[in-house]
Write a structure and sequence with these properties.
The complex is a heterodimer of chains A (247) and B (444). Chain A is an alpha/beta fold and 247 residues long. Chain A has 9 helices and 9 strands. Chain B is an alpha+beta fold and 444 residues long. Classes of the chains: A alpha/beta (247), B alpha+beta (444). At the A-B interface, helix 2 of A face strand 5 of B. The complex binds flavin-adenine dinucleotide and NADP nicotinamide-adenine-dinucleotide phosphate. Flavin-adenine dinucleotide binds next to strand 3, helix 3 and strand 10 of chain B. Chain A: InterPro entries: NAD(P)-bd_dom_sf, SDR_fam. Chain A: Belongs to the short-chain dehydrogenases/reductases (SDR) family.
Chain lengths: 247, 444
């Protein structure tokens, strides 16, 4: 039954994207990897194809080129059953405070691009009457912090977009899933000191995404459950105290 | 700066660490650093995979790029772990042509050390099965290498200990297997002559290896168990274990050594007791063939994670030499004699037969190779110097992937290809730029 199902993974060079696509391919799905660096995405495509025997194709896409979205979607070999978007950029908060171009890039990469793209798929999925959308957002969007609020604000926007889209698509029976991975050991966090209990491996995130989208019922997932109480506590600190914390 | 060491945890040196995420990211790193060497999974025992200044870790270059089931030809990135390759390929009915005693090594590391397995007498080293590779050069370029294209560079890179550049990708041939089982036979040898004889007699087996009880002295010096094995066919599995799955999963549960053991945990008596137990258990199985899973047959120690910690914080040395066939008997006897008399505790002493070798710095040569572990202590170094003299006199040499302490003189005496290797390093601009603690110590 799964033999003919297709995943589109946007962000085909990312570590979380690689792990997620591998999970789908292991379950017999066909995989489309979209990435702005095709040659790098091809490494993952080849690897997944050899390991699983699934068909994996690569498609060029830069999420900042919103004008290309329609032709990108038209150019896919088939309209996917599930779209997972893992595109994101942590960037440099301090630089973004004075460098508007960098700040704009963070806002667009983490919010505008992914949101508009998933929005375009939503219209097609509604028309077809089926399809699942997964957006990888972040706990950083749950509350703005001095150390990364450009990234966080964009992720907050993305989270709100996904929530609104879910609300709109639910009556049609279409699912929208928000993933908040917590800390993950990937190239994004290479060199950062991360607390082990709160830090997942990319493979864990991949499995969690597949489970949530294809077998589970949750709408919003935290990959490691400890993050839920952690974020509840962070969310409940009154602003007059929060603003004085060094976070 | 990070403190790095090899599997023996001796010596330790500080180094900067680079971790490129893709083969395309490697050449710019090489072009912009000096005193750099690549590092796979750090399973070389000594200082081979520690850069003089910078160490380039290849573990993120771990993709399989292509596989053709019709020919067994596979193209992989150099940082792929052998363990990963086995997980993917064994269930498809393919096995690597040569494997070392641990699966936690990278393909690049296996090429750079021209790794030998229990089948060297029949199938040669890992390098003999590499059809081509791509190499990132000291000047920031990338060269495609095979026997027919950049042949000198290709030959020097096999066994070249990372000193010609960084291997990015390699294409090699896997061998087809019918099942994931090994048909093993154990032979008991009561002394060294019997062991050498048994290894010669089992030379038509694909795999054979002798485990020597290093503490046995006098008439039982060299007492051994010889394990010979073949990949089992369907018919053999049906006969020896009816109903067994052709490709049983490998058990992943791993014991691990929780803490560094204090130095007194490994003394002569505890090792003697271990050896006695091991020898009896093995001898019980002698005679008739039986089936074992490929994983424990090839990688018995991998079942115990971090076993290198049993030797404590000071670390340990592995001594591995090869001596040519003509002088093997007497040389091995004096080596074992010295070792057993000093009573240095050794868990592992392995004796293997080797076929002819080639390559400038590649270790194998026709003869017998002996390998054993020794904890680091002041008194171990003079003993090993003594062993070196025996090896050199017999026309043998030491394995660079295990070495942490041999002298430049011992090294030069053993490797006649060294001048040619140095010339090639000069020609490609590697001298002084691509260098490890090992190459600096030995003047390569
Ligand atoms: C328990 C155990 C058993 C072993 N048994 C055997 C055995 O039976 N036979 C045998 O031959 N060896 C054996 N070895 C040694 C081991 O196979 C080699 O040291 C091997 O090179 C380790 O691979 P690695 O990926 O960990 O490489 P590292 O230890 O990281 O590096 C080893 C060498 O390879 C070079 N290198 C690594 N990657 C690259 C690359 N991409 N390009 C260029 N150079 C590179 C390094 O510079 C270094 O000189 C054993 C080791 C252990 C720990
Ligand atoms: N790692 C963590 O701790 C963590 C925590 C919470 C959330 N997340 C989120 O998880 C997702 C995946 O992150 P990761 O950790 O796997 O990091 P990653 O490897 O850096 O992945 C980011 C991906 O986004 C792609 N990308 C960036 N800008 C793009 C653009 N304009 N067009 C197309 N693709 C673009 C990158 O492509 P290139 O390779 O071409 O740059 C890369 O594939 C991100 O959304 C991240 O915010 C990560």
């Amino acid at each position: 039954m799964n033999a003919s199902r297709t995943l589109l993974l946007i962000g085909g060079t990312s570590d979380i994207g690689r792990a997620t696509a591998l999970c789908y391919a292991q379950a017999g799905w066909r995989v489309q990897l979209a990435a702005r660096r095709e040659e790098e995405a091809r490494r993952n495509a080849d690897d997944i194809a050899v390991r699983t025997g699934s068909e994996v194709t690569v498609h060029r896409l830069d999420v900042l080129e919103t004008g290309q979205f329609e032709s990108f979607i038209e150019g896919l070999p088939q309209l996917p059953d599930t779209v997972v978007c893992v595109v994101g950029e942590l960037g440099d908060q301090q630089r973004g405070q004075t460098d508007l171009a960098h700040a704009t890039q963070l806002l667009r990469t983490n919010f505008e691009g992914p949101a508009l793209l998933l929005g375009s798929f939503a219209e097609r999925f509604l028309e077809r009457g089926s399809g699942t959308l997964v957006g990888v957002s972040s706990v950083a969007g749950d509350r703005g912090r001095g150390s990364n609020y450009l990234y966080g604000a964009a992720k907050a926007g993305f989270t709100a977009f996904l929530s609104g889209l879910r609300n709109r698509l639910a009556p049609a029976g279409l699912r929208v899933i928000t993933v908040k991975p917590g800390f993950v050991r990937t190239q994004m966090t290479a060199g950062l000191k991360l607390p082990p209990v709160l830090t997942a491996q990319a493979e864990e995130v991949g499995r969690a995404i597949f489970a949530a989208a294809e077998t589970g019922k949750s709408d919003v997932i935290y990959v490691r459950p400890v993050w839920r109480p952690v974020m509840m506590i962070i969310g409940s600190i009154p602003e007059r105290i929060f603003k004085r914390l060094r976070l | 700066m990070t403190e790095l060491s090899g599997w023996g945890r001796y010596p330790r040196h500080p180094s900067d660490v680079l971790s490129p995420s893709s083969p395309s990211a490697v050449p710019p790193f090489i072009a912009s650093h000096t005193g750099l060497v690549s590092r796979g999974n750090g399973r070389a025992y000594g200082d081979a995979a520690i850069g003089e200044q910078v160490t380039l870790v290849t573990r993120r270059l771990d993709r399989i790029r292509a596989f053709d089931p019709a020919t067994g030809r596979i193209r992989v990135e150099a940082g792929l772990l052998l363990a990963d390759l086995l997980d993917v390929m064994v269930p498809k009915g393919f096995f690597p042509p040569v494997v070392p005693g641990t699966k936690f090594v990278t393909i690049g590391g296996m090429i750079a050390s021209d790794v030998h397995g229990k089948n060297h007498h029949r199938d040669g080293g890992f390098g003999d099965h590499v059809e081509s590779l791509t190499l990132a050069l000291p000047d920031g370029g990338v060269a495609a290498c095979s026997l027919t294209e950049n042949g000198d560079l290709f030959r020097a890179t096999i066994g070249g200990m990372g000193l010609t550049g960084t291997i990015l990708e390699a294409t090699l041939r896997l061998r087809p297997i019918e099942t994931g089982w090994m048909r093993q036979q154990t032979i008991v040898a009561s002394d060294l002559d019997a062991a050498l004889e048994a290894l010669r007699a089992t030379a038509d087996s694909t795999y054979s290896v002798a485990w020597i009880d290093c503490l046995a002295k006098g008439p039982s010096l060299g007492r051994s168990l010889i394990y010979a094995a073949e990949h089992a066919t369907h018919r053999e599995v049906d006969a020896l274990r009816p109903g067994a799955k052709a490709f049983p999963p490998s058990r992943s549960g791993r014991l691990s050594v929780p803490l560094d053991l204090p130095p007194f945990a490994l003394n002569r008596r505890s090792v003697a007791a271990f050896n006695e137990m091991y020898f009896r258990a093995g001898a019980l199985k002698a005679g008739y063939p039986f089936l074992v899973h490929w994983n424990p047959y090839f990688f018995p120690l991998d079942g115990i994670g971090d076993w290198n910690r049993i030797y404590g914080r000071r670390g340990f040395l592995q001594y591995q030499c090869v001596v040519p066939t003509a002088h093997a008997g007497p040389a091995l006897r004096s080596l074992l004699d010295r070792i057993s008399h000093r009573g240095f505790a050794s868990f592992l002493a392995v004796l293997k037969q080797m076929g002819p070798g080639h390559g400038d710095l590649s270790f194998p040569m026709e003869g017998f190779t002996l390998a054993l572990d020794l904890p680091v202590s002041e008194s171990v170094f003079p003993l090993l110097d003594e062993l070196d003299r025996i090896v050199v006199e017999a026309g043998g040499r030491l394995y660079l992937a295990k070495d942490a302490r041999q002298s430049p003189a011992t090294f030069e005496a053993g490797y006649s290809g060294l001048p040619r290797f140095r010339d090639l390093r000069r020609a490609i601009g590697a001298t002084g730029r691509i260098s490890s603690r090992l190459s600096a110590r030995l003047g390569i």
